[in-house]
Write a structure and sequence with these properties.
One of its GO terms (molecular function) is metallopeptidase activity. The chain is α+β, with helices and mostly antiparallel strands. The chain has 2 domains: 226 residues, PmbA/TldD superfamily (PmbA/TldD fold, 2-Layer Sandwich), CATH 3.30.2290; 207 residues, no CATH class. 24% of the residues lie in helices and 35% in strands. The protein is built from 9 helices and 18 strands. The strands form 3 sheets. Strands 1, 2, 3, 4, 5, 6 and 7 form a 7-stranded antiparallel β-sheet that branches. Strand 5 and strand 6 form a beta hairpin. Helix 3 runs parallel beside helix 4. The longest helix has 23 residues.
Length: 446
């Protein structure tokens, strides 16, 4: 039996378990929802071209939530037998007796439930032999170690896994879909002058293993990134233009996601509180969400509450057009859920058209940030302060690597001071954006 047949049978078994749990729970609860994501796969890790570890995983927990008289109780079980499901439901019901009444608790609205699940081409199972997976990881290491300045590998890996997600609730919904994810990664250590060491990495990830980069490409990129960081210097403290490389720029948009998420808004703990319909980014700035991109890394037909996902304009000409609301947050705020329980789905930041070299020329003289460290973000005030590394750029050309600096500003100012977005798009993230150039930030060095 091939993997697709196995997964098809597993999907049926999980649907049966979810339906059984719903039937049992509804005998005592006013409403209920049941969900499980069963993940199966393996990871092969190598170090210095020898297999270091092999890990298999096959896990999934059936989560059951019941609602009685505006009281909520939750329990879970990894045992899908009828007896274990009954015990979990009893536990959830017992918990609900001791929780406080919450008028905002409950299922998402019936009218927002997904009606039919589209095939988004998310499932490309591939469970290669372990020897082959090890060869892939070793090939990445060998390529990286072929560079003279690379002295040691910090490990490479090949990961392959697939998952089946099933969700049902007492609205009569029972929906499911399968997905897969494969990746290759490599991390190496280089040595520069005065024996100073630097580390960097590269990776590739895809739903379909045939769309992964070659292991040699991963190893080459890991080596080249590491070598470029050798013999770094510090900067004189000052205020400079700053450009975030595309893979770092995704985190900048990630702060936007956190700030417009319902949980922070109804708790009044967001620097973008009451900013719906207001301009928070330059007038040319646009972000769209496309949950149904075929094969997309963050594509999903429905969210964790069974709400159907749909295309959305997040930022239109710099104006915030929507919050990201679960049903609970929506009721708290007297709004409509947006289908973001569990996260966002394929955000695309519109580019201003410059390639990477053109972005450097527009930066002219300033700091290119390729790594950020630390958690110096205050989501309430928007204050931003993080450790950084990258490159000093003069007259549009990279001059030397930079390390041990801190960049600081306020996210509200940072968003409004964005000058350009490159077309060197980072495609390995749920947020797809090019490099982002900011007018200026405080940079603390020597």
């Amino acid at each position: 039996m091939d993997v697709k047949q196995q997964v098809s049978q597993q999907r049926v078994r999980l649907e049966v378990a979810v339906r059984k749990a719903l039937d049992i729970a509804l005998a005592s609860a006013h409403a209920c929802e049941v969900a499980i994501t069963k993940s199966t796969g393996f990871s092969v890790t190598t170090r210095m071209c020898e297999v270091e570890s092999i890990e298999f995983n096959s896990d999934g927990v059936l989560g059951i939530t019941v609602y009685r008289d505006q009281r909520k109780g939750s329990a879970s079980t990894s045992d899908l037998s009828e007896k274990a499901i009954q015990q979990a439901i009893v536990a959830a019901l017992d918990i609900s007796r001791y929780t406080s009444e919450d008028p905002y608790a409950g299922l998402a609205p019936r009218e927002l439930m997904i009606q039919s699940v589209p095939d988004l081409h998310l499932f490309y199972p591939d469970m290669p032999k372990l020897d082959y997976a090890a060869q892939i990881a070793i090939a990445a290491e060998r390529k990286a170690l072929s560079y003279t300045k690379i002295k040691q590998s910090d490990g490479a890996s090949y990961d392959s896994r697939y998952a089946v997600k099933v969700y049902g609730n007492s609205h009569g919904l029972l929906a499911s879909y399968s997905s897969s994810r494969h990746s290759i990664s490599c991390c190496v250590i280089g040595q520069g002058k005065n024996n100073r060491m630097e580390r960097d990495y590269s990776y590739t990830v895809a739903r379909d293993c045939n769309e992964l980069w070659t292991p040699e490409t991963v190893g080459q990129q890991a080596a080249e990134k590491t070598i470029s960081r050798l013999d770094s210097k510090k900067l004189t403290t000052g205020k400079y233009p700053v450009m975030f490389s595309s893979d770092v720029a995704t985190s900048l948009i990630g702060h936007l996601i956190i700030a417009i998420s319902g949980v922070n808004l109804y708790r009044k703990s967001s620097f973008l509180l009451d900013c719906l319909g207001q301009q928070i980014l330059p007038k040319w700035f646009n972000i769209v969400e496309r949950p149904h991109v075929l094969g997309g890394l963050a594509s999903a037909p429905f969210d964790d509450e069974g709400i159907f996902t749909q295309d959305r304009q997040i930022i239109a000409d710099g104006i915030l057009t929507t919050y990201l609301l679960t049903s609970y947050a929506a009721r708290k705020m007297s709004m409509i859920p947006t289908g973001h329980a569990g996260g966002v789905h394929n955000w695309f930041v519109k580019s201003t058209g410059q390639n990477f070299e053109m972005m450097l020329r527009e930066l002219n003289t300033g700091l290119l940030v390729t790594e950020i460290m630390g958690q110096g973000i205050n989501v309430v005030t928007g204050d931003y302060s993080r450790g950084a590394a990258g490159f000093w750029v003069e007259n549009g050309e990279i001059k030397y690597p930079v390390s041990e600096v801190t960049i600081a500003s306020n996210l509200k100012d940072m968003f409004m001071n964005i000058v350009a977005v490159g077309k060197d798009t980072e495609v390995r993230s749920q947020v797809q954006t090019g490099s982002i150039l900011l007018e200026s930030m405080k940079v603390a060095g020597d």
